[in-house]
Predict the structure of NAD(P)-binding domain-containing protein.
Amino acid sequence: MKHKAIIAGATGLVGRHLLQQLDEANNVERLFILSRRAIEGTVKGEQLVTNDLSVPDHDKTNMTADIGFICLGTTLKQAGSKQALREIDCDLVVKVAKSMREVGVSKVVVVSSLGASVNALSHYLKTKGEMELQLAELGFRQVIFARPGPLAGRQENIRADEVLVQRLLGFITPLLIGPLRNFKPIEAKDVASAMFILATSNLIADHVAQINSAQLSQISRRASLKESSIKR
């Protein structure tokens, strides 16, 4: 099946990898990119550059998409305040999702976080939980939340708690088994690969689904093994 896709957050760590996959995918015939600035290097992508990442009104009548990807997010340090973080990680994500729905998107895959919950003590995780709750009620045919744990190799815009976690994980990663596997660092490209597969397949049947870090790794690994066997 050929898809028309739309992505927001294509300049972030996960978004950059996802944009490349979408740009190269044979089953994506048209690609729209919501961005605040022009992005170089994309071949297939049609860029819609706006300050608020919305689809301009004049484009809504000339475009349709069936799958959407949202890779937006910030840190408290970047945002400057808890309210500013919420405006990006929740309010902006919901606004972008509504904009995607208006152009026909029926299935959306969104980057969230391990531990996201409206009952979380952490403001960051509570905000992600509120975002998930609101998106689940927007009327999409399917909403899938990718909930990765620590992202391996991230050097920029890393939160203080992530620094501590990554240092500890350097010692205990070999011991993380069972449910604790979700705390293993995961490569951004693996998150992106899993998101692409989740959007373009019927792997998940649930109307709303949260896919944890271990599951994201497994989906990406299976795809890599399948690709390797095809090349042989």
